[in-house]
Amino acid sequence: MNTGPSLNTGPSLNSGLSLRTGLSLRTGLPWTVLRLHRAALIVWGAFLLAALGTLVWQVEVTADSVREGMSACARTGGLCRRQAVIHYGGGISWASTLVYYSFFAVAAFAGGALVGRELENGTAELAWTQSVSPTSWLAAKLAVPALLLVAGGTVFVLVFRWAWAADRDLMGDDWTFNDVFAARGPALVAYGLCGLGVGALAGVVLRRSLPAVGVACAGMYVVNHNLEEHRGDLWPTAANGLHPESHYWPMHLVETGVVLGVAVVATGAAFFVLRRRTG
Amino acid sequence: MTTLLASTRPAPVRVPGAALGLARSVVRLHRSALWFWLLLMVALAATMLWAYGPGYGTASADVQDQCRRDIEACHFPGGPWLSRYSTAVALTTLVVAFLPLLVAAWAGAALVGRELENGTAHLAWTQSVSPARWLAAKLAVPALLVSVGTALLIPLHRLMWDGGENLLWTDWFDAYGFRSNGTVAVAYALCGLAVGVLAGLVTGRTLPALGVAVAVMFAITHLGDQYRPSMWPTVTVTGAASLSLPDKALQLDRGVITDEGVRIGNNMACTTADSSVADLRSCLAHNDLADVWATYHPQSHFWPLQLTETGIVLAVAALAATASFVLLRRRTAASGAAV
Fold first, then answer.
1. Residue ranges of chain A with pLDDT lower than 70?
2. What residues are paired with B238 via a beta bridge?
3. Interface touch A78/B208, C-beta < 8 Å
4. Angle at A213 between CA A112 and CA A261, to 5 degrees
């Protein structure tokens, strides 16, 4: 087991071979993760592009036609205006709601496909005999999706901030709506990473794909539901007992911190459990 | 020799207990799912009964008590008991309304997808269980348990839902409430089973089957919510009657008829006239209009709407189940037992 060329073993008999293997391993492991989960990558990419496309379409195309329709029904007011708002705001709110709550899908994917299935099938154990240590196996499994989640989530947050602010008069929501609150800042990315960590922990602990999917989703529901219920308590209220809009960033950043904390603890626990099991 | 050769391939004997044995093996294989299902049913039933009885009683007494002490509280009822009660109602309704997605996820992943991925299905088909009978057992046993479980939840949910009318303003046409209050609940659950099984057979893998089944059932329930008002003829009234629709009516559209006889939908003109006929007449004459109208579903359309939707959703379920059998037969006929 220990005789073959391995990573980071200092001067070896054939340092050239060792270096080359090390390099290809370091780039090869993330590549394997991407290749193994290419279907998930394609689905996620298509989903994100559809959400971004909807936002751009609503702002650049739908907004104008809705304004035309509203000026045509100016005489009747009431219901006509409300329907225009629903038509325009509906698309934007669908995009933010689906992308925000996609952390459930991330948790299910991490618990089921990324970790649980590999431990259930024994393909993880096979990988660990191929000069990939359990720790670096899990690190690669988590680093690649984490990178994609951060990149994709950041792009979505920036585009959503632009789309949400573009035509405020055509929308019926405000900054306190659950999806709007989360999707206008880093909390959206934090929830994705938290889903990844919680899913990985469920997968490592249960070592079976379907139970891991269920437990990971339930765990994320508990975290998210409790935070949504207590968003108002994350920052002291103003003198009138309410939150002015200027409290958005403090509240949002506290929630981001809490969610990232859960993500770090869950990921750490996943590594700890894996190391103890494979010890 | 001939007798020996003949005896190596005996005609399939229909053992009376075989069907029962197959059903028993399905239950045994999925006993953890069965336990989960039973626990879920008990938890839902207990929560709904609590909400219907003590939950409603305590919340209602608490709200009245607050109202007596502070006039503000009469207009904005609140307090911990009302919040507990409304959480119990909202949560159980949510779970019952989305049970079909859970059933679809399980059927796609655990019932069929995993068996095909592992190869345990192929093993079963070599043990004198034909693929068609294997699939029939996989559908029939869960269908029975899912139908019975959901059917028992419906009357409990109706009790709770109707009881909450005064405190929570629960409507008969609320999307989640509607899906939990009648026969459509059973139909959607069975549809979830059939769609899950089909997704499992199409993908042949656990997790993709789970994703596909949930996505398809989400789409089906969403379409049901969207097109529900079109599933039974609506009622249209004109004149003063359109300004005061019956209690609990689901208003769908209202508009005007001009003097030229043109019908304009989605128009609120003259709706602010109070329902006295003279007031309405003067408003119509002032605006060159002949009449006003409104289209709606009265509450009495609840059961016709339920039964029509039940029929449609069951047809979708039957279609998915048939497609599963056809797909399985074509695959196993083409290459033996290799799916």
1. 1-27, 73-81
2. B293
3. no
4. 95
Of B110, B207, B211, the CB nearest to A117: B207
* Any B CB within 8 A of A113 CB: yes
> Above 0.90 for ipTM, yes or no?
no
Say if B208 is an interface residue toward chain A (CB within 8 Å). yes
**How far, rounded to the nearest angstrom, does the alpha carbon of residue A171 sit from its chain's CA centroid?**
26
DSSP B174: -
Contacts of B83 (CB under 8 A, 6+ apart): none
Q: Computed over its alpha carbons, how large is the radius of gyration of chain A?
A: 23
Q: Residues B238-249: pLDDT tens digits?
A: 988 888 899 899
Other beta carbons within 10 angstroms of residue A30's beta carbon come to 15
Counts for chain A of helices (H) and strands (E), in that order: 12, 0
Q: B204: closest CA among B52, B304, B332?
A: B332
CB atoms < 10 A from the CB of B33, how many? 17
Task: List Cβ neighbours of B338 (8 Å cut-off, separation of 6 or more).
Answer: B122, B331
With CB atoms and an 8 Å threshold, state whether B268 touches A209. no
Task: Using DSSP bridges, classify how beta strands B250-258 and B263-264 pair: parallel, antiparallel or unpaired.
Answer: antiparallel
A:199-218 residues touching chain B, CB 8 A cutoff: 209-210, 213
Nearest to A246 by CA among A238, A257, A256: A238
> B14-44: per-residue pLDDT in tens?
555 677 888 888 888 899 999 999 999 999 9
Other C-beta atoms lying within 10 Å of the C-beta of residue B69:
10
Residue from A115, A94, A110, A12 nearest A47 by CA:
A94
Given the DSSP bridges, would you call strands B289-297 and B235-238 parallel, antiparallel or unpaired? antiparallel
Query: How far is it, in rounded angstroms, from Cα B189 to Cα B321?
Result: 13
Which tokens hold the place of B131? 């693929």
CA distance A160 to A171: 14
Q: Select from B4, B208, B3, B170 the least CA-distant residue to B89.
A: B170
d(CA B262, CA B258): 5
Helix H or strand E encompassing B256: strand B250-258
Give the largest CA-CA distance in chain A. Answer: 88
Q: For residues A162 and A183, give the distance between their C-alpha atoms in angstroms, rounded to a whole number.
A: 11
**Residue A192 near residue A106, CB atoms below 8 Å:** yes
From CA B35, how far away is CA B253, in angstroms rounded? 47
Q: Quick one: which of B242, B217, B250, B252 has its CA closest to B99?
A: B217
Residue-wise pLDDT for B315-335, tens only, equals 999 999 999 999 999 988 865
